[in-house]
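Posting this for the archive.
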Amino acid sequence: MSEQNKNMPLEVPETLDVHEQKRIRIEKLMALQQDGADPYQITKFPVSAHNADLKAKYEKEEAEVIAAANGDEEAVNAGLEKLHETTVTVAGRIMSWRDMGKANFIDLRDSTDRMQIYVRMNDIGKEAFQAFKKWDIGDIVGVTGFVFRTKKGEISIHAKSIQLLSKALLPLPEKWHGLKDQDMRYRQRYVDLIVNPDVKDTFVKRSMILREIRSYLDNLGYLEVDTPVLHSLEIGAAARPFKTHHNALDLDMYLRIETELYLKRLIVGGFDKVYEVGRIFRNEGMDTSHNPEFTSIEMYQSYTDYIGMMDLIEEMYRTLTRKVCGTDVITYQGVEINMGAPWERLTMVESVKKYAGVDYNDWATDEDARACAKAKGVEVDEGEQATKGHVLIAFFDAFVEEKLIQPTIIYDYPVENSPLAKRKPSDPAFTERFEYFIYAREMGNAFSELNDPIDQKERFVKQVNAKRAQGANAEVDEDFVTALEYGMPPTGGLGFGLDRLVMLLTDSASIRDVLLFPTMKPLPVNGGRPVKEEEDEE
């Protein structure tokens, strides 16, 4: 047999464009339908096992046969023949095809692994074999046969019958692994998953991560809850919401930008520990770590503070990493990250002093702080209105964040950028708030929650006024203030983005790599080439 014939594809020639290949496949489908063999009318197929399990089972049983034979070749052959008496049925997609005349090998991929299938005319019958030879790569088929090992040593299935279960009308990309068009991989994730099994592993791990987070919090006595996605008012928070309209109520509504305020209402109502895995929507820009639609996990616990939440998140990440990755030292984008070591904890003042060489405590006035920023070439958005707190934040952004590669907690934030956090009793210019950073990226945010309704109302009003000055229709959430007026216990709260955590634990460079269907600009309706979407630098 020549090498040329061995690797001859049954797919239509590559020289034909996709539209022509689709036309040929549709003609094949129509012929099947005319012969009463429409694959789309099949409703089920009795799969008895999956490829990965069959391979593992056969290897184990084969090893047992060889060991029991104790070097007797006839006993080995007899034992293997006995294994061939076990009938299995598998189903999956044809990924490749080798034509050897009256015998063919196809690669069949199911949800677990690929399996080589040996299809011979003498086994399935001449008529069935002739029908089989008209099928295409990408078709979904069901196979009944027995497991064996080929002369070349590959565990395979010897087909006794084979059935077309679904016809693929479009050909798979021929060389997807070398394709650099990330846009199309995100846009047609279903094709990406078919031809790139490693991509599927990322989303299997994502599901595992979420399951382990739930298990960890549940074991601590937290209760998972669901809160509304549609809100009747636009709050004063900085994030810009998506707006919609409720026809029955004739009411403009907003997709939520957080789950915080409803979860804290539940703390008021008497739940001690609650959390929500929530879909969040923010009408803002996109880059490698931001998508307009993403998943957050927020948790609130009564009678603890931000120190308690520090301990919780550090131990959660450590436990989660060990369970998901099998180790607490991982590699992200070529950099070793030690999740198991104690996380460094610095106040924002300490971090700026450490990395920028500037001491907040040397500034006697706001003017001193602005002068220091000017001398160091640090831009402060608030300009001449900047306070010492504003300048401290600007120094942190300019000098500190990029240095926080290993897990680090930065706490005690200025009140200027922490509208929902409690002020520190010992220094009201700062709040009991922390963020934690890994690989120079903010991963989560936590507070000793503000439970003073008068202070909260004042901060809400300032937020709303600032947002209205930008043209937004922001309102104070009076119902939340009312809830606080009934009394909320001292509470620690924390929120983090699930997607960024999945990026870290799967070594994924972009948030789009961990979202099955990331937000994309629609293709031109005339079927033209897709518009490339450039990701902004963060």
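Residues 1-13, 176-180, 534-538 have pLDDT under 50 and may be disordered. The first strand starts at residue 88 and ends at 99.
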